[in-house]
Design brief:
Blueprint: H1 4-7, H2 12-42, E1 52-57, E2 60-65, E3 88-90, E4 97-104, H3 106-109, H4 119-130, E5 135-142, H5 148-158, E6 165-169, H6 191-200, H7 204-220, H8 230-234, H9 245-268, E7 272-275, H10 297-315, H11 319-332, H12 337-349, H13 353-366, H14 375-388, E8 391-393, H15 395-401, H16 421-437, H17 444-449, H18 455-461, H19 466-480, H20 498-508, H21 514-527, H22 531-544, H23 550-561, H24 565-578, H25 584-595, H26 599-616, H27 621-637, H28 641-654, H29 659-667
Parallel strand pairs: 4-5, 4-6, 6-7, 7-8
Antiparallel strand pairs: 1-2, 2-3
């Protein structure tokens, strides 16, 4: 009996070749796609979507948070894509290093503050004061207008970088943040499709396709700049009632994403602190109040008349009468948000704070423009964290406890939900308390020995200056001047004078660098005799750029004025360590040693300063003359009259009209 393949005209070898060709035909497209993907990775195409970039700073290797990482989630031509903060952490984590990643939206990012008033920065200050022997890396991964989808995406990656804890504050952006159910920056409402998008986005091929699509869109839009705030740009569906399916969908997605985040963290053994959400209840009216579907036009007009009358009575100082009208309105439509907000105002005026809080909370929850998370989101946070055994930081209760009448308002908020600097300070304190309560990051023994650190001392070190406050206020002023705000938001007075306000405007409009503005502010305070405030300006820069020698030099000068020679010595030595090839630190420290009557110690420092200056030519002519004068004085005091005369002659050539130089020259017989 012959071979079956042979009977059908296919010899064994031919059959094998046919199978091989078929396999190659099937695999070839995938091989080509794989080759293109590999080529794109080698060429680093799409690296602007990466979460982290590598960088070497002062001889050490660091990971730097990519400021453009949010491009993953936004259309390039529809909105101004928010930047991440360029926080850094070491590639090689040291044995004494504790690494914390803070995740969330604009509140985690610290909006509207630039750097120092963010809760991650303030938390690092507090932890370092409590545990000075521990190197804390508190990395701010907060970005405006992102939500739990982006946080989930980040957590999947960050678990690879040896985190000791995740701190999460998210939930306000579940409707309008990128990939939210009512956002302009979304890919439909199906959670599985969004998760698939997040997976595909890691492929360079996918990024290439997006880049091509966005290029076509940019051409179609003719490159018109986006003149809108993120709030204006992100909100697609502008009224979502509690009964709306999109409300339930957003809440369900938030629960599922939080569960997945906590599941990843638990599998990797990373502790998580999740904060409850807080917002401005007392001083933020609902953005949108919607009537029930069953209310006809006649009854709607009657409802609005009751509300208008109640508001007028309240403004006239008649809260009891106002409440009667509001009760009538609530009977007609219990879901009308503004009725509850006005009731909260009335109860508050009567000193009935529990009733006021309940009414304000109900008003916030019924606000159909969902920029503030409703109470349901805090319920989900507590339920999911209980399921996974994750720690909860009750931020909402903390803000209530620090607010008049126990109801958060403008004491701690700038507008609807972003804290002021004192609010961010409170957030940092509450996260630190949560870490203490659950004995995370360091041993329980260390926690029991940790000192109580004074809030006033930490605030002095925070680097939050009038310039920072004024810059923040400018950003908030633009936000509340646009939709959906009604122009009634009351903004605080920073107390900054006209000079500081002018500096803030220059920074805001991009005409002056942030650090230079702080230096000019410090000089302004020095000229006014306000040395403590000048010092805060320099400290503000040091907190952000600790590797810059210049603010250490200037702080050393202030210490010199105060005759705090020991502190000046320490600061000048830090400046030298950061700029060993520049003359400034050596010259300052050498001059200090002269003031301390230590010419033998001064002379080598001053010689080093001169050597560096002759190499780099960084000093101004008067400073060069003063350096020669200091060298001449130090040499004379150590008995080297030849060197003294040489430097004194050069000092006279550089500063011919300086009386001190003239006196020294006469004493040296010149």
């Amino acid at each position: 009996m012959g071979n079956a393949n042979a009977e059908h005209g296919f010899p064994p070898k031919a059959r094998a070749r046919q199978v091989a060709f078929s396999a190659v035909g099937v695999l070839l497209p995938f091989l080509l796609l794989g080759a293109v993907e590999l080529g794109l990775r080698v060429a680093r195409f799409g690296s602007e979507y990466d979460l982290l970039h590598g960088r070497e700073l002062a001889g050490k290797k660091y990971y730097v948070l990519n400021r453009q990482v949010a491009r993953r989630y936004f259309s390039f031509s529809d909105v101004v894509i928010p930047d991440a903060r360029s926080d850094v952490f070491e590639v090689n984590k040291g044995p004494s290093t504790v690494r914390i990643f803070c995740l969330g939206g604009s509140t985690t990012a610290g909006f509207p503050y630039t750097y120092n008033a963010t809760f991650p920065s303030l938390l690092q200050d507090r932890l370092e004061a409590m545990f000075p022997d521990v190197n804390f890396e508190v990395v701010n991964v907060g970005i405006s207008a992102i939500n739990s989808y982006s946080v989930l995406d980040f957590v999947r990656e960050l678990v690879r970088y040896q985190p000791d804890a995740f701190l999460i504050y998210m939930g306000h952006n579940e409707f309008y943040g990128a990939l939210g159910v009512a956002s302009s920056q979304s890919f439909g409402k199906n959670r599985a499709a969004k998760l698939l998008f997040l997976r595909l986005e890691k492929l360079r091929l996918f990024r290439l396709v997006r880049w091509l699509v966005e290029g076509v869109k940019a051409i179609a839009s003719r490159g018109q700049p986006v003149d809108a705030t993120l709030m204006e740009s992100m909100a697609r569906k502008k009224a979502i009632s509690i009964e709306d399916p999109d409300y339930r969908r957003a809440l369900s997605d938030f629960r599922a994403n939080l569960r997945e985040i906590l599941g990843i963290a638990r599998r990797k053994g990373v502790p998580v602190l999740v904060s409850t959400l807080t917002s401005n209840l007392k001083d933020q009216p609902p953005f949108v109040s919607v009537c029930g579907a069953g209310l006809d036009e006649t009854r709607r007009r009657k409802l609005e008349a009751f509300v208008a009358e109640a508001e007028s009575l309240l403004a006239g100082g008649w809260p009891e009468e106002s409440l009667k009208r509001l009760a009538q309105a609530s009977q007609m439509d219990p879901g009308y948000a503004r009725v509850h907000f006005l009731a909260g105002k009335a109860w508050y005026a009567l000193g009935q704070y529990d009733s006021a809080r309940a009414a304000f909370t109900r008003a916030r929850d019924l606000d159909a423009l969902r920029f503030r998370a409703s109470s349901d989101f805090n319920r989900v946070i507590r339920e999911v964290c209980a399921e996974f055994g994750a720690a909860v930081v009750d931020m909402d209760s903390a803000f209530s406890a620090h607010s008049e009448g126990g109801i958060p308002g403008r004491e701690l908020f700038l507008e609807h939900l972003h804290p002021n600097s004192r609010g961010y300070f409170l957030m940092a304190k509450q996260f630190a308390e949560g870490l203490r309560r659950h004995r995370l990051l360091v041993s329980p023994e260390k926690w029991s020995l940790a000192p109580e650190v004074s809030d006033s001392l930490l605030w002095d070190r925070a680097g939050v200056t009038p310039l920072e406050e004024e810059l923040a206020l400018m950003r908030i002023r633009r936000l509340v001047s646009r939709w959906p705000f009604d122009g009634t938001t009351k903004l605080p007075d920073t107390g900054a004078d006209d000079f500081i306000r002018g500096l803030a405007q220059e920074v805001y409009w991009g005409r002056k660098a942030w650090n230079l503005a702080h230096y000019e502010a410090a000089q302004h305070y020095i000229e006014m005799g306000q040395l403590a405030q000048a010092e805060r300006e320099f400290l503000a820069v040091i907190k952000v750029v600790p590797t810059n020698f210049y603010p250490y030099l200037k702080l050393g000068d202030l210490s010199l004025v105060r005759q705090d020679y020991a502190r000046a010595d320490s600061l000048y030595r830090i400046a030298i360590a950061l700029s060993p090839h520049l003359p400034f630190g050596y010259a300052k420290l050498g001059t200090l040693e002269l003031l301390r009557n230590r010419p033998a110690e001064a002379l080598p420092l001053l010689r080093k300063a001169l050597e560096q200056e002759q190499r780099v030519h960084q000093l101004k002519r008067p400073d060069v003359g003063r350096l020669y004068y200091a060298l001449a004085a130090a040499a004379a005091q150590t008995g080297d009259l030849g060197e003294a005369r040489l430097h004194a002659q050069r000092a006279r050539e550089t500063l011919p009209d300086d009386p001190a130089v003239a006196t020294l020259c006469r004493e040296l017989g010149l």
